[in-house]
Amino acid sequence: MKPKIFTIGEVLYDIVFKNGKPVSGCPGGSMLNTSVSLGRLNAPVSFVSELGNDATGKIIIDFLTSNNVQTKSIQIYKEGQTSIAIAVLDDENNASYSFYKNYPEARLFSKNISKINKNDIVLFGSSYSLQKEIRKHFYDLLQKAKKTSTVLIYDPNIRPSSIKSNPKFKTFFKENISVSDIIRCSDEDIKYACGINDIHSFYSSFMNENQILICTSGKGKISLHTEKINKKYSVPKIESVSTIGAGDNFNAGLIYSLFKMKIRKQDIASLEIKQWDKIINIGVDFAIDVCKSYDNFISKEFAENV
Asked: Which domains does the chain have, with CATH numbers?
């Protein structure tokens, strides 16, 4: 059976402002962005999420379908509305966000998720992975996936508001790390979640020798930490149009590399530096392409070249 890819996270419609004016609008959400890029590469990806039975939700479903993303695991609720995100770009084209969410009172985690099998890849994270309303069903799914030798990748993508509003944040955060094979975070994630600025301290305090930590730092270096490898990678300087989706598409490059190189769960802890060099560089290439436009995903032209 060929491996499949699942991404689990929130869905939004992003409206981007620059210099006080809207310049772009497209479906968004960290895991959705990764899904679309993988779909454009014809990878077998399913997106697990929820949205409203409204015009915005239909636009998003149609967009995902047109980009080869499987949508049957998206829960469509009758009450509430599809979430909206307003992203305002600063002079360096980094975004600050305001979110407008109207979830129904009763949240139901999707019941239509295809069976997750050995060597499938599951990416999860962001605020969706910390929400108490769906936590039980969400975490049960992760634990079942771990038992079936699925590759689990966690991208915290933490915003300070999700910490302040969630008294269970630390518990959920530690649980998410504990089930994961790869944690792909930013230096801001570590600072917000743990108050730690040192990546080595985070690795030794929260992770075990079989787990992989890949930490990005915006325009700075990328750090790779395994039991045997500690390496930093430089990021080329580019003129960016927008940095929205850069980390999400680094994830897409990471996942696509694992998928195409046929790297299984049992292989990850023993990967050599040359293999990691290739994987990290592909992730960087994906992120760079996204920064060249207001879209949250790799371009179709880039996908065709890949």
From this structure: 5-305 (3.40.1190.20)
